Amino acid sequence: MSKSPSDKPSKPSRSTGLPGEVRAALATAKQADKDYVAFPTPWTAPTPYPWREDWNAALAQRDGTRLQGIFTYPSLTASDRAFMLIIVHERLAKDSRCAEWLAKEFSHDDPFALMLRAELHFHQATAARGAGTGDTVHSDAATTWVGNCHLAHELADKAYELSGDPAALAIQQSFALGMHTPDSDDLPIMEIFERWSSVDPWNIAGWHQLVLSSDERWSGDPELQLNLAGHIAHDAPEGHLVLGKVPEYIDERFRYVYLFNTDRSNDVDPVRRDFYEQDFIRDIVKTAWDRLVSPGPINNPDHAPNPEVETPLGRAAFSNFVFCLSMCGFHQEAFEALWRSRGYYRPGTPWVLGRKVKRSVAAVSAWRS
After folding, report:
1. CA end-to-end span of the chain
2. Mind giving me the DSSP string for 252-293?
3. Which of 134, 155, 224, 359 is deepest in the core (most CB within 10 A)?
4. Cα–Cα separations (whole angstroms), residue 215 to 36, 295, 296, 309
5. What confidence tens digit (pLDDT) does each residue in 104-154 have?
6. What are phi and psi of 117, to 5 degrees?
7. What is the three-class DSSP state of 238?
């Protein structure tokens, strides 16, 4: 018996199973994508740091003389040099031969060699520990982790004694992760912070590393990250790019709250909204934003190209605010942050993922319409 046309199964509609609000959100996101053409230079990547390409090339070519020459560029800040050393650590995780070369090439005890070997020991520490939570780390691996973090700290100390370079102190902030034990009353995380910040208080590389090490799991202090965010917001120099780190501290604190203090069977968005809409968090975020765009080197009402804004840190400073301001209900400011970043959005923390970007841009776009 043949089937009539009406017996054939119908093709599912693309909208089947999608609630109206989801379809509306998708439509808004698509419109937001179209709106990007309104930005002066939509979705252009920031201009690399002048030294970064040379630095990566010297590492790839195993050119120690060139590497040391780049490190002494007169235009570099202590924060730049600390970021250069962080790049070395990141490369070591991908290139085991580079680790062997560094150990042989820089076995002497000048400050630069000592800082490189400090990063090498930190690489060995993190490789031994792995990425799991503390209770999953084998005792032998934990011993290697702690021992190498201490060795890295000692080498960086010696480098600072010989050179007085604040970069040697700033890189120690990551090493602190392996120098703190839960049964200890001391807080090496904050001792190290106080040391480098007393010499170079707004070293962005130091604040960048402190985002993670100030997490409650490491510091034991549930209020530390938000206190640090408030300190930056209220006390950093007006227009300083370190103000762009405030959203990262707040987002990392939310990440901890959600992962460890929340029933994760619930939808994350209402939980996140409740967190960001607390008055004191709104105050921190708004203060940091207002002081970042107040009169200073980064402020430009006409949105014309600005050398400092065009660096990766400048773009990151604005892009970090897009989602944070939107979640706090400051949609006009969120749109301005996206505009000032030239439509470029760089995920700034482990919690800032692509899907979150689309939601925040869609929210800002919907608000403007």
Report:
1. 56
2. HHHHHHHHHHS-TTS-HHHHHHHHHTSHHHHHHHHHHHHHHS
3. 155
4. 35, 32, 31, 29
5. 999 999 999 999 999 999 999 988 887 766 666 778 888 888 899 999 999
6. -70, -30
7. coil
Are 311 and 49 in contact, with CB atoms under 8 Å apart? yes
Name the pTM for this structure.
Answer: 0.79
What's the rounded Cα separation, in Å, for the pair 90 and 84? Answer: 10
Instruction: List the one residue out of 155, 161, 162 whose CA is nearest residue 106.
Output: 155
Say if CB 296 and CB 223 are below 8 A apart.
no
pLDDT tens digits along 214-242: 988 888 789 999 999 999 999 999 888 89
Report the number of secondary-structure helices (H) and strands (E) in the chain.
Answer: 19, 0
> Which residues, including other chains, have CB under 8 Å from residue 106's CB and lie 6 or more apart?
64, 112, 113, 116, 117
Helices (H), 63-170: 64-71, 78-92, 96-105, 111-129, 139-163, 166-170
Could you give the dihedral angle defined by the CA atoms of residues 165, 169, 175 and 179, in that order, rounded to the nearest 10 degrees?
140
